[in-house]
């Protein structure tokens, strides 16, 4: 099995430290690495050469820590990892100063989220003395509250939005300020509005309206029932009357005269029929004697 030359998966980072404070260099190197060496300005660094320095190497992690730096500690630090296949080196700067302007190690990142999501905006910032960090939206400072919480953990500063709404979209910025200067980082936040299904409308009816409606329905049902019963009674009575009339002889009704004024013929008939005439007397009349002609 062949051995590969070491590589740094996490190289050293430059450090700005206030005089009297601690300064730490860290690097992660691939294994196997049988030997790790530290250098300052090209010279091999040891605890004897730099009093108070702490050096360690475990599980591929190389660490150099100076508990209290002075101006004399400023310089160029390097770490070198060596094995049988080769070597690798990582280098960074140490600046010891009384003050240092703010500097962003991690800047704001633009993001797009859905409505109702939790949003976290993070930055890492250094400075000597420690900078004052403020968050802004569209130029207006954000005050820490239940909805917008501003958190700090060492050099990590965070703006936590508990529940994002479309009106929270916009340009967010963070400023870090101290006596040596000022630094700003800006990003965009877009909160996408989710499609909300149309709500079903409900008709709210009061108790009095419900009672009145029920009473009206009961009255209508009673009225319909009464009408049905009355109709049935009428039908029964009609059937009985029909049966009774069927057993009776209808009375003879004389025909009505076609005209109110009696005609002459009818009057004569009535007079003739109403009077009894006596027969005419028979008279015997002698025939006249003819006169002789002279």
TrEMBL record:
<feature type="domain" description="Ig-like">
    <location>
        <begin position="102"/>
        <end position="190"/>
    </location>
</feature>
<dbReference type="InterPro" id="IPR003598">
    <property type="entry name" value="Ig_sub2"/>
</dbReference>
<dbReference type="InterPro" id="IPR036179">
    <property type="entry name" value="Ig-like_dom_sf"/>
</dbReference>
<feature type="region of interest" description="Disordered">
    <location>
        <begin position="243"/>
        <end position="294"/>
    </location>
</feature>
<dbReference type="GO" id="GO:0004672">
    <property type="term" value="F:protein kinase activity"/>
</dbReference>
<dbReference type="InterPro" id="IPR013098">
    <property type="entry name" value="Ig_I-set"/>
</dbReference>
<protein>
    <recommendedName>
        <fullName>Ig-like domain-containing protein</fullName>
    </recommendedName>
</protein>
<dbReference type="InterPro" id="IPR003599">
    <property type="entry name" value="Ig_sub"/>
</dbReference>
<dbReference type="InterPro" id="IPR007110">
    <property type="entry name" value="Ig-like_dom"/>
</dbReference>
<feature type="domain" description="Ig-like">
    <location>
        <begin position="6"/>
        <end position="97"/>
    </location>
</feature>
<dbReference type="InterPro" id="IPR013783">
    <property type="entry name" value="Ig-like_fold"/>
</dbReference>
<dbReference type="Pfam" id="PF07679">
    <property type="entry name" value="I-set"/>
</dbReference>
């Amino acid at each position: 099995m062949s051995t590969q030359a070491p590589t740094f998966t996490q190289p050293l980072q430059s450090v700005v430290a206030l005089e009297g404070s601690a300064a730490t260099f860290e690097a992660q190197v691939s294994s196997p690495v049988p030997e790790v060496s530290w250098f300052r300005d090209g010279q091999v660094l040891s605890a004897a050469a730099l009093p108070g320095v702490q050096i360690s190497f475990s599980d591929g992690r190389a660490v150099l820590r100076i508990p209290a730096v002075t101006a004399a500690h400023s310089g160029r630090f390097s770490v070198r990892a060596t094995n049988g296949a080769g070597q690798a080196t990582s280098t960074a700067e140490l600046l010891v100063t009384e003050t240092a302007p703010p500097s962003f190690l991690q800047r704001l990142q633009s993001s797009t989220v859905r409505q109702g999501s939790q949003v976290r905006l993070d930055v890492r910032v250094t400075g000597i003395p420690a900078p004052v960090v403020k968050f802004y939206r569209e130029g207006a400072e954000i005050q820490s509250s239940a909805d917008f919480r501003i958190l700090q953990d060492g050099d990590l500063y965070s703006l936590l939005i508990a529940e994002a709404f479309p009106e929270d979209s916009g340009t967010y910025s963070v400023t870090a300020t101290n006596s040596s200067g000022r630094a700003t980082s800006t990003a965009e936040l877009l909160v996408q509005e989710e499609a909300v299904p149309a709500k079903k409308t409900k008709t709210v009816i009061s108790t009095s309206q419900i009672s009145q409606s029920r009473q009206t329905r009961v009255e209508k049902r009673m009225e319909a029932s009464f009408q049905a019963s009355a109709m049935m009674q009428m039908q029964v009575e009609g059937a009985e009357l029909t049966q009774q009339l069927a057993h009776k002889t209808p009375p003879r009704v004389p025909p009505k005269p076609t005209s109110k004024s009696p005609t002459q013929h009818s009057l004569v008939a009535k007079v003739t029929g109403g009077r009894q005439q006596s027969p005419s007397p028979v008279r015997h009349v002698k025939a006249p004697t003819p006169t002789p002609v002279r």
